[in-house]
Specification:
With about 325 residues, this protein is α/β, with parallel strands linked by helices. The protein contains ten helices and 15 strands. Pfam families: GFO_IDH_MocA (PF01408), GFO_IDH_MocA_C3 (PF22725).
């Protein structure tokens, strides 16, 4: 055995990372650390490739850890990241980086000295790469407007758990649509560059029993002045996830649920991107472990960096401060 992969957290995404890590790094054990300190029963996690469970940081054989993945609530991210970074352990952090930009600032010195990547898996969608190419194609002309929409009822996310008990419904843990559904803002910034917040409207009368923002419509602008509207909600029953990019000469529509990307022209012609055939979560981890094998000092594209995630958090903080519910 080469060493161990430490995964902090025990939820669905942590176990997905454990299973994929065993597949990609069969030479390593996968260890699970409870972020809250509760006792974990190994029998419950062995099917996901976990070989050891820990409830306390102090019990970890730190010298055996080759890499680590933080998949705990966002409120725990920075504290664990600082501990691991001080040991020079390559690190992958699940989105979002932190609760806010001020909290994340504490990690910037460590990110300049060691390997820390952020897990935004939509960057590994093949259709997103195709979309970026189409947006850069001269024949499409200038980009005029962008709209992205993501919505699903929170109770449907984790049917086995009352939604009121989920991380998504608790502000102190990093819940709310701005942070929990930040995938959209990340891929928009990856496509268009940093976005400037202009205004944000929240739903005036909450529909869920949760102390978080449940529906937010934001207006942002790109460095070129392109208006970008983003809608995120936890309350619609019909799942929706799509974006539309309107240019001078074409309309590009990406539906993430049907996995279709279509470019339509005025003369009726259409282009359709190839269907997705690979697992974006697996591709993300492949890149993370490839970086370790090549002794990369910083994450390789399209993995998100701490600096990029800081920019995203500053944008979210600005939207939150502007949020009105009238």
């Amino acid at each position: 055995m080469s060493g161990a992969i430490l995964i902090i957290g025990s939820g669905a995404i942590a176990l997905r990372h454990a299973s994929n890590s065993r597949r990609l790094r069969p030479d390593c054990e996968c260890w699970l650390l409870s972020a809250s300190g509760r006792e974990l029963n190994l029998v419950d996690y062995q099917a996901d490739g976990v070989s050891r469970c820990f409830s306390q940081w102090q019990a970890l054989p730190l010298a055996q850890i080759e890499a680590a993945i933080i998949a705990a609530p966002a409120s725990h991210h920075i504290d664990y990241a600082l501990r691991l970074a001080s040991l020079k352990i390559p690190l992958l952090i699940e989105k979002p980086l932190a609760l806010n930009a001020a909290d994340a600032e504490r990690l910037l010195p460590s990110a300049k000295q060691g390997y820390i990547a952020l897990a935004y898996p939509l960057r590994f969608r093949q259709q997103l790469a195709q979309l970026k190419q189409w947006l850069q194609a001269p024949e499409h002309g200038r980009l005029l407007h962008v709209h992205a929409h993501v919505g699903q009822h929170l109770a449907a996310w984790r049917p086995h758990l009352p939604y009121q008990q989920s991380v998504s419904a608790q502000r102190k843990l990093g819940g709310g649509v701005l942070l929990e559904l930040s995938h959209e803002l990340d891929y928009l910034q990856w496509l268009l560059g940093p976005l400037t917040a202009q205004c944000a409207l929240s739903m005036p009368q909450p529909l869920l029993q949760a102390d978080v923002e449940q529906s937010v419509t934001s207006l942002l602008t790109s460095a070129d002045g392109v208006p970008v509207s983003l809608h995120q909600n936890f309350v619609q029953q019909v799942v929706q996830r799509e974006s539309v990019f309107t240019t001078e000469n074409a309309v590009l529509r990406w539906n993430l649920l049907t996995q279709t990307l279509i470019c339509r022209y005025a003369d009726g012609r259409t282009l359709q991107a190839n269907a997705e055939h690979s697992d974006m979560y697996l591709r993300l981890l492949e890149q993370f472990y490839a970086d370790q094998a090549q002794a990369q000092v910083q994450p390789s594209a399209p993995l998100a960096t701490v600096a990029e995630s800081m920019t995203l958090l500053k944008t979210l903080d600005a939207l939150r401060s502007m949020m009105r519910n009238d």
